[in-house]
């Protein structure tokens, strides 16, 4: 019965059929807003045009909401739940190198570092994009280059993040991409 309920909710069946809600709607909407915004602004929309700016402001707004949610949100959304300490990160990477990393419902320490770095880069790209619209910085080449460098760094790290999610999906026999759609993971 549980397995049928899990499938009806869109989850692929697990060995026991049991699943738990991990990623709440705020986390998932933030994730897919950033993915969509980055694809639009990096590959589809023209730099500096109004649609590019609007998408940038939407991503900036989503980032502010996610930052607040990191303090007041649900368990797995809170920074306190996954903040990586150097010792936790060292232990996790050592276990990962041996192929014995633990499966975690929320962010693992390496994933947490990636998320925090991507959020910092997003903040930087949003800030530099906003600054380029100010009279004080109009036409400043260094600012445009910084904005572009940050955007390219996001692209590289996002590709690494996606590859790591696919690797971890394979290692732990669960579809992490699908869990970011449904919010549910195998119990």
TrEMBL record:
<dbReference type="GO" id="GO:0020037">
    <property type="term" value="F:heme binding"/>
</dbReference>
<feature type="transmembrane region" description="Helical">
    <location>
        <begin position="57"/>
        <end position="77"/>
    </location>
</feature>
<feature type="transmembrane region" description="Helical">
    <location>
        <begin position="29"/>
        <end position="45"/>
    </location>
</feature>
<keyword id="KW-1133">Transmembrane helix</keyword>
<dbReference type="GO" id="GO:0005886">
    <property type="term" value="C:plasma membrane"/>
</dbReference>
<keyword id="KW-0812">Transmembrane</keyword>
<dbReference type="InterPro" id="IPR016174">
    <property type="entry name" value="Di-haem_cyt_TM"/>
</dbReference>
<dbReference type="InterPro" id="IPR051542">
    <property type="entry name" value="Hydrogenase_cytochrome"/>
</dbReference>
<feature type="transmembrane region" description="Helical">
    <location>
        <begin position="150"/>
        <end position="170"/>
    </location>
</feature>
<feature type="transmembrane region" description="Helical">
    <location>
        <begin position="110"/>
        <end position="130"/>
    </location>
</feature>
<protein>
    <submittedName>
        <fullName>Cytochrome B</fullName>
    </submittedName>
</protein>
<keyword id="KW-0472">Membrane</keyword>
<dbReference type="GO" id="GO:0009055">
    <property type="term" value="F:electron transfer activity"/>
</dbReference>
<dbReference type="Pfam" id="PF01292">
    <property type="entry name" value="Ni_hydr_CYTB"/>
</dbReference>
<dbReference type="InterPro" id="IPR011577">
    <property type="entry name" value="Cyt_b561_bac/Ni-Hgenase"/>
</dbReference>
<dbReference type="GO" id="GO:0022904">
    <property type="term" value="P:respiratory electron transport chain"/>
</dbReference>
<feature type="domain" description="Cytochrome b561 bacterial/Ni-hydrogenase">
    <location>
        <begin position="22"/>
        <end position="183"/>
    </location>
</feature>
<keyword id="KW-1003">Cell membrane</keyword>
């Amino acid at each position: 019965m549980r397995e049928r309920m899990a499938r009806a909710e869109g989850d692929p069946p697990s060995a026991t059929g049991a699943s738990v809600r991990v990623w709440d709607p705020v986390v998932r909407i933030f994730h897919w807003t950033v993915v969509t915004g980055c694809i639009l602004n990096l590959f589809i929309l023209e730099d500096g045009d109004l649609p590019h700016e609007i998408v940038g402001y939407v991503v900036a707004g989503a980032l502010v909401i996610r930052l607040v949610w990191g303090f007041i949100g649900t368990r797995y959304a809170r920074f306190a739940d996954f903040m990586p300490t150097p010792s936790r990160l060292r232990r996790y990477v050592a276990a990962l190198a041996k192929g014995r990393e633990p499966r975690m419902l929320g962010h693992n320490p390496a994933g947490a570092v990636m998320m925090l770095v991507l959020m910092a880069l997003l903040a930087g790209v949003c800030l530099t994009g906003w600054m380029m619209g100010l009279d004080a910085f109009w036409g400043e080449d260094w600012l445009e280059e910084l904005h572009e460098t940050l955007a390219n760094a996001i692209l590289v790290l996002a590709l690494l993040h996606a590859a790591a999610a696919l690797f971890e999906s394979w290692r732990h026999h669960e579809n992490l991409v699908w869990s970011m759609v449904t919010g549910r993971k195998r119990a």
